[in-house]
Structure formats: C-alpha cells, structure tokens
Amino acid sequence: MTSQTLAAVGHRIDHTSRTGALPVPEAAAREAARLKATGEAHVWWWLLEDHVDQADFDLLDEVEQVRARRFRHEKDAAAFTRTRAGARRAIGDLLGVDARTVALGRRVCPGCGDLEHGPPAVASPAVGLALSLTRTSGCGVLALHAGDWIGVDIEALRPVESGSLASVVLAPAEHAYILSLPAGPERTAAFHRVWTRKEAVLKGVGLGLLGIDLNALDVRPGTPGPLVVDHGYQGEVSSWQVDDLDLDGNWSASLARPVDGSPLGPILRHRPA
Q1: Is 229 helix (H, G, I), strand (E, B) or coil?
Q2: Which DSSP helix (H) or strand (E) runs through 62?
Q3: CB under 8 Å to 130, separation ≥6 — which residues?
Q4: ω into residue 226 within 30 of 0, thus cis?
Q5: Shortest CA distance to 129 belongs to which of 228, 240, 59, 24?
Q6: I want to staple 118 with a disulfide (CB 3.0 to 4.6 A). Which of 29, 106, 195, 240 is the partner?
Q7: Collapsing DSSP states into helix, strand and coil, what is residue 16?
Q8: What's the order of all strands across the beta sheet hosting 151-156?
Q9: Angle, alpha carbons 263-269-273 (nearest 5°)
Q10: Model pLDDT for residues 14-56, shown as the tens digit of each residue
C-alpha cells in the first residue's frame, strides 16, 4: 500500500446502514442453527505481515478502509487489514457465502449503549453469531459461536516483570502463585495465561475495564482449563467458561464463553493455510 493510500480520510461512514434488510442465505441459516444446537465454537488464526496486501484491503468496507488509512505505520495497517479480511474469509467459508457479502458491525455497548465501541458482531448474514477479534505481534485471531457474547485474547510470549504489574493486573492469589514459580519460561507462561484469561472474559462481557479492574478478577492460573470465572458488574454476576487455546506458536491465548444454560460444545481450531 502506498503512502497516499495510507493518508487519513476525515469523514465517518455508517457501517451498518446497508445490512439490516439483506436476506439471509439458506445455507448460512442452516449452519447457524447447527452451531446453536451443538454449542461449538470456532477459532481461526493467521500470521500477520509487515505490508498491506491489496486483496485484504479491497475486502474491507469503507469504514475499515478509512481506519486502515489512518494508521501511521504500514505494519499496523497491515495487521488491521489482515485481521478484518481474515475474519470475513473465515465467516464466509463457515456459512457458505461469499466473503465480500460478510459485514462486520458492532453490538450496543452493554455499559453505556453506544454503538461506537461495543463488541464486534456479524451484521450480515444476520444469523445471530457472536464474534471476537484480537491480535498481537505477528498473529491475528477470530473466535465465533452462536449466541450473543464471546471473548478471545492472544499475547505473544515475552519476558515480563510481574512484580511491577502486580498491583494493576494480578489478584493477590495470582501474584503469589506466579512468584512461586521459577523465573523464566514457566513464570512467563503463567503470567500470560493470567493476562489472556482476564482479557478474554472482559471482551466476552463487552465492558472492558469499565466493568471490573484486572486485579479484581481472579482467573486461577494454577488451575488447568477449562474453568469457570465469575464477573461482577453493578451487582450482577455473570459466569464464563474459560479455555486455554493452543495455537501452535509462541503465543498465549484464551477463549471465554458465557455459562448461561446454552450448550458449550467443542472448540474447533482452524490452522493457518
């Protein structure tokens, strides 16, 4: 992508206005019904490049193209465009529709009712699928299931001084557990397991740090997943099943799904082509 392509564009576009009245393809409706019945979740991940692929950029809608142009560095624009384009391709393949017909929108923020920063959603085909998108250095991830809420997070494993972050990120029991581990890869993995489990729950709830401080959410890093984590907000408590994801690389990743009586089926991972 050229520097001219990356130049900022100063206007806003309604990215949901064209999707509300579109018909739902029969194949997509059937697949969504199957997903709801089985409770299965799907996770895709892909490697991120330093330069924007024009095919990825062309697959974005106008709002996303505006966002891509606003990034100061092409590597950041490339990560954004590959993640959004990758999500469209994955959803299109799963639902049996052309990726160019897949529209990504946002749900209303459960905290303030704003559409500008609510959790992402599949706007079209309108078949009731929740999705979560995340990316870290070198990797983008999409998680999807039938329902209203889902959260996924990934972090590249790197040395972190857990002591300096304890008061911000770690619950007391988490801090004690992490410091009980020998310094090195084991402690690094445990810290990132805490981080991605928390972020997955916060993304699933859709409130981010508005709902709860990171150090108030105990995700029990010494307990193998899946595990159930409770999240409280304004006197209401929601429960989330958190699974640790093995994505075949130097990553830590976690998936959170609501425990609300709906079936929680297997997690199907789709490796990069």
Answers
A1: strand
A2: helix 62-70
A3: 119, 121, 122, 144, 145, 146, 147, 148, 149, 150
A4: yes
A5: 24
A6: 106
A7: coil
A8: 151-156, 251-258, 236-245, 227-233
A9: 150
A10: 333 344 456 899 999 999 999 999 999 999 999 999 999 999 9
Burial of 113 (0-12, 13-18, 19+ CB in 10 A): exposed
Contacts 24+ apart (CB under 8 A), 128-135: 128/32, 128/36, 129/32, 129/35, 129/91, 131/87, 131/91, 131/104, 132/200, 132/203, 132/204, 133/83, 133/84, 133/87, 134/199, 134/203, 135/48, 135/79, 135/80, 135/83
Strand, coil or helix: 184: coil
The amino acid sitting at 131 is L
Question: What is the CB neighbour count within 10 angstroms for residue 97?
Answer: 20
- Three-state DSSP at 264 gives coil
Contact 57, 81 (CB under 8 A): yes
**Which residue type does 152 have?**
V
Query: Helix or strand or coil: residue 255?
Result: strand
End-to-end Cα spacing for the chain: 23
pTM of the model: 0.87
187-223 residue pLDDT tens: 999 999 999 999 999 999 887 666 677 888 899 999 9
- Taking the alpha carbons of 85, 91, 97, 102 in that order, is the dihedral positive or negative? negative
Pull the structure tokens for residue 221.
């890093």
